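Hi all, posting the design record for the shared folder.

TITLE: backbone redesign
STEP: 1 of 1
STRUCTURE INPUT:
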């Protein structure tokens, strides 16, 4: 017997060093947002902050890059996380069966965010990201992911 499992990307967030959501995008989201986008972003940031603190305190190697928080997997989704040295936080949610997207988030930071946001003289830190080149290139990169909307066939 063969089962088809869809892998999808659902949401993407960028938070600045102060915990402000400066960018949000959604694809294939199947549930309604509970509250406003700002409320959801604050809840997400609080959860990430708490998880990072818990992981650091409970790790036998709290100062190691490898012992930090990388993703959270539930039965409904997987939340992938990357934090830059300048404390920008990149999160992408996906189907729970999607492979780890941390390296993808690092590449988005380096090749898209830095190029089209940080190097943009019109962008002011802390403002919402509205740069069309950033949005176009982010869309292109996310939609190129094998897990953007793909199906796995699992033989039983």
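Okay, here is what came back for every position:
SEQUENCE:
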């Amino acid at each position: 017997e063969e089962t088809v499992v869809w892998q999808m990307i659902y949401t993407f967030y960028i938070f600045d060093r102060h915990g402000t959501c400066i960018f949000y995008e959604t694809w294939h989201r199947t549930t309604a947002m509970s509250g406003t986008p700002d409320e959801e972003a604050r809840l997400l940031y609080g959860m990430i902050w708490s998880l990072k603190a818990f992981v650091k305190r409970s790790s036998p190697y709290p100062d190691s890059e490898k012992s930090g928080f990388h993703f959270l997997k539930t039965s409904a989704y997987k939340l992938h996380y990357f934090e830059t040295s300048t404390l920008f936080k990149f999160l992408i949610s996906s189907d729970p069966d999607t492979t780890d997207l941390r390296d993808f988030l690092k590449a988005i930071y380096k090749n898209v965010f830095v190029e089209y946001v940080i190097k943009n003289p019109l962008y002011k830190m802390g403002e919402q990201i509205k740069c069309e080149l950033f949005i176009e290139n982010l869309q292109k990169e996310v939609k190129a992911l094998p897990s953007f909307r793909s199906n796995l066939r699992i033989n039983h």
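COMMENT: The chain has a mean pLDDT of 84.
Let me know if anyone wants the other runs.
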